[in-house]
Amino acid sequence: MRDTTKHQGLRNQLANLLQAKGITNENVLQAIRKIPRHLFIDSSFEEHAYKDKAFPIAAEQTISQPYTVAFQSEVLDLKGGEKVLEIGTGSGYQTAVLLELKAEVYTIERQHELFKRTSMFLPKIGYKPKRFIFGDGYKGLPEQAPFDRIIVTAGAPYVPNPLLAQIKIGGMLLIPVGDKEQVMTLFIRKSPKEFEKHELGDFRFVPMLKKKN
């Protein structure tokens, strides 16, 4: 669990690269500079940790490309204290960014291997969400709704209605929608029945899976 000045230098370079690619939120860039991303992947592949690319992790999933994490985090426009539901804990890297942005995070993972690994690992390096949940992201977390923000970190073939239903008025759902390629889609809830929709460009995510009982 080493974190050296060399790692810090690589994180600074990564943050500068993301800034050059258009990330402007200083709190997001600060989170990228701070979080030891190399600890989130197998140590034998450490040299890949600070490149701006996705990388395979356990259970045939990936740790998202840093630009994607920064982009989604910036769109959420967190000021601190927001109640956030994350669908797809994965490696926990996006979770850590949300926690650095002072959000109150509830995070759901459907792969049991990843759920076990990440729910033990994140607190070890100082990141403690409100709750880790092993479950079906398509259903959201109705018992804790409504949320200020819901962020989905896997490609969804369609927008699950339960997620739309669990956003506060004035809140946001950010979800990559599509099969092989996804369009990053932002829904802002204007009233109980009215949503404003924005399409924010093409991305590639692993598919969002339903819970297999």
Automatic annotation (TrEMBL):
GO terms for biological process: methylation. The active site is at S64. It catalyses: [protein]-L-isoaspartate + S-adenosyl-L-methionine = [protein]-L-isoaspartate alpha-methyl ester + S-adenosyl-L-homocysteine. Its EC number is 2.1.1.77. It is found in: Cytoplasm. One of its GO terms (molecular function) is protein-L-isoaspartate (D-aspartate) O-methyltransferase activity. The keyword Nucleus does not apply. Keywords: Cytoplasm, Methyltransferase, S-adenosyl-L-methionine, Transferase. Pfam families: PCMT. Belongs to the methyltransferase superfamily. L-isoaspartyl/D-aspartyl protein methyltransferase family. NCBIfam families: pimt, PRK00312.1. Catalyzes the methyl esterification of L-isoaspartyl residues in peptides and proteins that result from spontaneous decomposition of normal L-aspartyl and L-asparaginyl residues. It plays a role in the repair and/or degradation of damaged proteins. This is Protein-L-isoaspartate O-methyltransferase.
